Predict the 3D structure of the following.
Amino acid sequence: MDAARLPVTSVDVAVVGSGIVGLGVAYAAVRRGLSVAVVDRADRPGGASVRNFGHLCIGAQIGPARRYADRSRDLWLSLGAAAGFEVRRCGTIVAARHEDEMAVLTAAAADGGIDLLDHREVLTAAPVAPDRVIGGARILPDLQVDPRTATRQIAEHLTRRGVEFHRRTAAVAVRPGVLTTTRGEIHAGTIVVCVNHDLDHLLPEVAEDIGLLRCALDMLRVRADLRRPLTAPLLTGWSMLRYGRFAQQPLIAAVRARLHTDRPDLAAVDVNQMYTQFPDGSLIVGDTHERAVDVDPFRAEAASRLLLAATEDLFGIPAPTVVERWTGVYASGPQPFVDREPQPGVIVLGVATGIGMTTGLGLAEERIGRVHGDLGVRDMSIPRSTRGAQ
Ligand SMILES: Cc1cc2nc3c(=O)[nH]c(=O)nc-3n(C[C@H](O)[C@H](O)[C@H](O)COP(=O)(O)OP(=O)(O)OC[C@H]3O[C@@H](n4cnc5c(N)ncnc54)[C@H](O)[C@@H]3O)c2cc1C
């Protein structure tokens, strides 16, 4: 047989895309004893699911995002244990640099799950410059993973559980029961398309109907001379403008107005000043946001310089050494979640804002549960597939 062709394959569930949403669908399906095939056009994980901070920002979500995030939390913990990667139960530190930011944190903390921190406690948790913060908070349920290893190890774990992965295999067309790829057809009762921002390449009518754009983010990994390790992901007032739990507070208007007046340069690149530290001690620095149908391949260095200067100022350190730069891209739409069934048995699933690591596993679990039966999140066992490739 031609090695470039797939064997004739028939499965219960075919998944397009092996980012965190596609992996979540595969995990949900295999836990229900279903046979699963995943195709990805890339040779290895390279999409948004490896380009992010690895910050699972659960306690700052509201509404459906919080429901998916809570489900994801259980699933991340169970996957970490089963697949052998670390899921840190560290919470998130939010550094407040102004009284108006402290007021927003105080209002948000009233609902529980967020502990306020005084000046000394923030300095103990995060190596920020003492004269740059006045207090802060810890978001208790939050987790941290290394996205570069976690996605790879989840895929390896699912392979051991019988999921077929077909890499360097692009989906080119989809119709009920049949997924056409560059290597042949896969027959499946349920086909789940999890291609993030590239939905317009495969199902343009769905992408346009939803109003999906691409959001490009400038990211850096740096070596920085921090006073001590960062014990958890670190957010700032800029982050409060984005995450629902803080952004819904009436007092946030004062934070937004002040930040935009004081730092129009950071506001112009739509900054979310935040940090996570990798196991090797390097610091992930982010990020900027630019929305368009297509991402401009030529990135202005000025945005990275702003992020680095903001980092020097917050931590009170000399200029960090940049180790890596990259552009991350995620789908951006008017609604945070994409869940469409354009044809019977063809499901389009995704996260159209920057919280897919936090919510993607829960979204996938809930959606597959609606088609193939709810298991309850506590049942994390994975039966072996009974029906594989034929
Ligand atoms: C810089 C950055 C920072 C972020 N930080 C965070 C964070 O800290 N916390 C958080 O919760 N979220 C964060 N996010 C958002 C989160 O990373 C994304 O929402 C999530 O990873 C999206 O997962 P996905 O599976 O939909 O997409 P992806 O991971 O992009 O996977 C899509 C896959 O589909 C494949 N594909 C596309 N088209 C085809 C085709 N036709 N055929 C076959 N395969 C195809 C691609 O090769 C890719 O592997 C961040 C995103 C970015 C970019």
